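User: Show me a protein chain along with its predicted structure.
Assistant: Here is one chain, sequence first, then structure tokens.
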Amino acid sequence: MKRLIRMVIYHGFDYYFKFRFKRFLKSSEPGGTVYLVDIDNTLADTWPSLQNYVYRSEHQRYLSLSVFIGMRKYVMSKLRNHEHVVFLSARSYFKYYTTKKWLLSCGILADELILVSNAFEKISYVNDLVDGGFNVVYLDDLSYNHEHGNVLFYSDLIYSLNKLPITYMGVEQINLINSVYEGDNQGS
């Protein structure tokens, strides 16, 4: 019975996010640029919170994450230029409002926040944008296992993304964006 309820809830959330994303696509001008931005280990410094787990709850852990200053400035510059920024993160669907609250605490009001149950589901959103005639800039480290000291990458997913007509910015570009602002913020 629990499995059936879990499956119904999963499909309900999945449908909700896909519906909202389709509505976003219809309200946006094809040919424009959409920035898809991952949250964990791209915008938020997540892995230390997994390694040193000292939180009473996942809610508290998510709300306590530090933001990468460089990536925040990058995202904010896109929002100020009225570019479309969509956050696409593999997190529990039940963490939607916590994630939204964290973004707002960082001063970020995004066009859309989409949660998926795993990293491989992200490619369908990328494909929807490409099929809709949008220019896509996708920022996502696509890494995991940091907390165990051996960073691994979703290599098959990265390979698939690099075959698409998009601009994919992975861990090297994200680190570069963050390091550009590092000198500006020393001592702050």
